[in-house]
Amino acid sequence: MMRILCASKNKLCFLPSNMHKLRNLEKLDLSQNSLTKFDESLTTFEYLEYLDLSENEIQSLPQTFGSLKLLTYLNLSKNNIESFPSEDIQILGSVKKLDISENRIGELPANLPYLYRMVELRASFNYLEGLPPAINLMKGLEILLVDENYIVTLSENICKTPNLKILDVSNNKIKQWPKAFENLKKKCNCITGHQTSNKRKSTSPKEPSNN
């Protein structure tokens, strides 16, 4: 009964037709391949906790994440994704670490804050112009990286995110800052302004512990 499958760096352009038979998978690594889509079969793995699809050529995501209710780690970085689905987003309610950096995403879903268990969100190097207004509902959020985007203003609610420890909004186009931003800087490591960036690469979040 296979629970872990690592198939990274295999030049995969598509998944095998019998992939759906691996119903008991808990960890799946498909990074550094040539996949062009998020195969629908992946949404049927109801026991999956870890999914790495980074460094592929994925252009779009499914409208719903199906049965991925136990997923705690999702890495979609370094693809060509243009949007993140908002339909039935509560399915991803167990996700603690989400990496969507280095894509072409222009907007985060307004209901993204319903993923209140999320601890780490990486969305650097995209085309974001703002953050979800109710981001303060993400009570567990500790790390928020949205550097290298096109954000113009930050909502006052960013300062009400209770457990935020690291906020990187550097290399954006922010002209209007929240009134309480100075107070946020006292309790949180806030990276702002222009930071030198030599290459479009981001560090993916570490694999979550079993705790």
Automatic annotation (TrEMBL):
- Give the source species: Octopus sinensis (East Asian common octopus)
SMART domains the record matches: LRR_BAC, LRR_SD22, LRR_TYP
Q: Which InterPro entries match?
A: Leu-rich_rpt, Leu-rich_rpt_typical-subtyp, LRR_dom_sf, LRR_domain-containing
Q: Which PANTHER family match?
A: LEUCINE-RICH REPEAT-CONTAINING PROTEIN, PTHR48051
What cellular-component terms does GO give this entry?
cytoplasm
**Name of the encoding gene:** LOC115228073
Instruction: Report keywords, A-Z.
Output: Leucine-rich repeat, Repeat
Q: What is this protein called?
A: Plant intracellular Ras-group-related LRR protein 4-like
Q: Which SUPFAM superfamilies is this protein grouped with?
A: L domain-like
| Pfam families recorded | LRR_1, LRR_8
